[in-house]
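Justification of resources, computational component.

The compute hours requested in this renewal are based largely on the per-chain cost of generating structure records like the one below. Each record pairs the submitted sequence with a full structure-token output. That output is archived, and it is also reused by downstream analysis tasks.
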Amino acid sequence: MGEIRNFRSGNPGEPPPQGRMPRRLAAIIVGDIASYSRLMQADEEGTHLRVKRIERDLIEPSIIEHHGALVKTTGDGFIAIFDSPVEAVRCSIVIQQNLIGRNTSLPRESRIEYRIGVNLGDVIVEPDDVYGDGVNIATRIEGIADPGQVYISGAIYEQIKHKVVCGYESLGDRKVKNITDPVRVYRVLPDADAVGRTRGRRENMLIFLLGVTLLVIAAGVLWYLLAQQPGKTGERAAAPSVAPPVASPSPQSPPREAAAPTPQPSPSVAASTPSPAPSPSPSATTAREPEMIAIRGGSFAMGSNDDPTERPIHQVTVKPFSIGKYPVTTGEWNECAAAKACGFVATGKDDAPVTNVSWTDAQQYVAYLAQATKKPYRLPSEAEWEYAARGGTQTRYWWGDKLQAGMAGCKDCGDLAAEQPAKVGGFKPNPFGLHDMGGGVDQWVEDCWHRTYQGAPGDGSAWNGGDCASHVLRSGSWKNDARYVRPSNRDGYDTNVRYPTHGFRVALDP
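The structure output for this chain reads:
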């Protein structure tokens, strides 16, 4: 997209001299369409309409949803600013993942793909533009980004590295045009484990190649020694040559697990390009019902004063209902996928909670389960979820006010915490007999996201009024710290976007 330029002065990144200008520290997103000229040459009017539709239906709503401000569009790109670096990066991820979904059915040469660069800097803000090195650095980072990727500066990375659940690949210091000091650049990976898998594949391939090389050398040495054994020349000539025993085991053979594994698609790709579901099998015609726990219902004080989103504390009366004893597992989800009722085949162990699920995906599963069993399965409401998670208690956690090991799966929850979600039921149940109602996976509920409880219903029903572009998540995940596993903790996320830590459990009316 080039430098941010004020055409009245002609100097990039510099406003005209009009006295002191308002300055602010902001996270700046710069987005630019890859191969825009080629797309316009192939279909000028069609490309223009598609770009405007993306701006109207995706980019602008995503920026607003993440509390940013769209500064301007530039024909082939956009600039937005945010008070929060966390929200700026989340917005960038949402835009890219939604664009992957939009492009899935299109031929590669027709796809509209954005490069996105994000930087944190002190900038000058005018009503219709923004200026300064902070903007120019974001533009330069965008310029080196790959299509469909989000690149961030070291300044952004330092602000979000423990706050956004995703992976980061350091690309080192980059010297960028018209900026004196090198800029540290990171590539954002929506799947936090993608970097480790990439490195692991590279290391395994190197080990495999080294093992093959040593094997060939050993075979050559063996052939040479056999050829030099004393005996008649004719006998040596008649002796069969020794072929390198590549297929036979030897001390130099690489271990089986060192062979390069078949690359698996990361959740960031699965988020928008679902794997084709297998054909239904006879065993998939009858749905396996999740194990349910009946909850008698009652009244409780919902919310807490630990976070503004959990206020005000208010009295709620919940009617009797049933809720899944565990989150929905990968095995249960894949039965739905096999029946072609769910949009992708999940990876992972069958007894682990399914992950990388959007709210819309979760609705697909409960609709499949309800149709297959003729029972009114659904997602729990937010009030039902918290009532069930508390298990009749009003303490900070269901087991008390202090963190205890062995009670939940999170990154600082003790020795049982792990780098991936444990199998369902791996931690102690709460007083209602429910497992993993804190930690493990974030869990979707029925309600639309509201920033506070002001105006929330008091009868335990789902709160569906207002803007439902985002829905509520509960529980916290194995990648979050302990404050997220509190029964009152809540968050919101984009309704149609998959994320590597998101799962769900089901509910059922009596």
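The CA atoms of residues 108 and 460 lie 47 Å apart. The chain is about 30% helix and 20% strand.
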